[in-house]
Design a protein that fits this description.
336 residues, alpha+beta, 60s Ribosomal Protein L30, Chain: A, 7-stranded mixed sheet, 37% strand
Length: 336
């Protein structure tokens, strides 16, 4: 278990035999990091109900596990790096409040990346405790955004906006902040949706600090002649305004329209086969079947077999659904 107090003490070393994997699993009674007794696999177990699909997803495989600065890490020989961290936050005097805990985790993440050679941050998954609840008069998501923004500003200064990766942030029903990330040495391009205000430019009506992410990250691996696009958590937002509060059907249409805009911007060559993986978060489990039907009809290559649906609160209380995805293709690079 990696439930870390503010001092980030060292955890017991994990067997560093190569060929290990780092997984994400849903449906745990409490979020924690668990290791296979044989030392071949480590998993971030999340207290989030799985409503459709597999309860286990690979984050990265074919590497070796280690612990550093509060993160459980997996490195591969081709210098990909994935990491996961769980920290108690905002529950009692002995743990940090949410914004401080978030900044501490992100500061640790940046120290970890800075210690590696030429790594680029691709994608971050954030799980925020009781994301729509208020603490000291402010929504927990906004407390989280304060800590995340301050960490980016500390690391990148005035140049933080061009360095914001693809990301998502959804709620988790326990007093813990959970972060998972993926990075690598292949170059990355961060892109935006022209019909949405960049999250980092949101006005102060959304909190004292804006969210810190781009809409999509595109990685071109010339050594493997492949490209991968990491779609951030995408919802029913145009400009910076929520569209169709509490209306699932219209939100699904707006969300898939936003995804289509990003998909067009990727400019994937028509002759190129694309492998996709999708994850949707729904606030109400009763929306699972309609979400499954709609997304499989509306999204290219989305099928019941490559779509997982998880129950979670979305970062804005009126939002019913959020969708993220990964696109992989070979041959042409796209995005020119």
């Amino acid at each position: 278990m990696s439930s870390l107090p503010p001092s980030f003490p060292s955890e017991p070393a994990v067997d560093s035999t190569r060929g290990q994997s780092l997984q994400v699993r849903f449906g745990a009674e409490a979020s924690n990091i668990v290791s296979d007794p044989r030392g071949r696999e480590c998993a971030l177990a999340l207290k989030m109900p799985i409503l459709h699909g597999s309860n286990s997803e690979p984050l990265l495989g074919g590497g070796h596990l280690s612990e550093n600065d509060g993160f459980t890490l997996l490195r591969t020989d081709d210098t990909q790096l994935a990491g996961v961290c769980v920290m108690q936050a905002g529950a009692g005097d002995s743990v940090p409040e949410l914004s401080a805990a978030t900044q501490q985790i992100y500061d640790s993440l940046f120290r970890t990346l800075d210690a590696e050679r030429e790594l680029h941050l691709y994608r971050i998954w954030n799980y925020v405790p009781f994301i729509n609840h208020e603490t000291d008069g402010m929504e927990n998501y906004r407390h989280f955004n304060v800590g995340r923004w301050d960490a980016f500003r500390t690391r990148f200064g005035d140049h933080c906006n061009p360095n914001m990766p693809a990301a998502s942030a959804v709620g988790i029903a326990e007093p813990a902040i959970v972060v998972a990330f993926l990075a690598g040495n292949a170059p990355v391009t961060y892109i935006e949706n022209p019909e949405q205000v960049p999250a980092y430019d949101y006005p102060s009506a959304y909190g004292p600090r804006p969210p810190s992410f781009s809409r999509c990250a595109v990685v071109h691996d010339d050594a493997r002649a492949t490209s991968t696009a990491y779609l951030s958590g995408t919802a029913s937002v145009k400009g910076h305004t929520t569209v169709a509060a509490d209306c699932l059907e219209t939100q699904l249409r707006t969300t898939t329209d936003n995804i289509g805009i990003i998909r067009t911007r990727l400019n994937i060559p028509d002759s190129t086969g694309v492998t996709t993986a999708w994850r949707a978060y729904v606030r109400d489990p009763e929306d699972t079947l309609r979400t499954l039907e709609f997304l499989c009809e509306a999204l290219p290559s989305c099928t019941p077999d490559n779509l997982n649906i998880v129950q979670a609160s979305i970062c804005r209380a009126p939002l019913c659904v959020e969708v993220e995805g990964i696109f992989c293709w070979g041959g042409g690079r796209g995005l020119d």
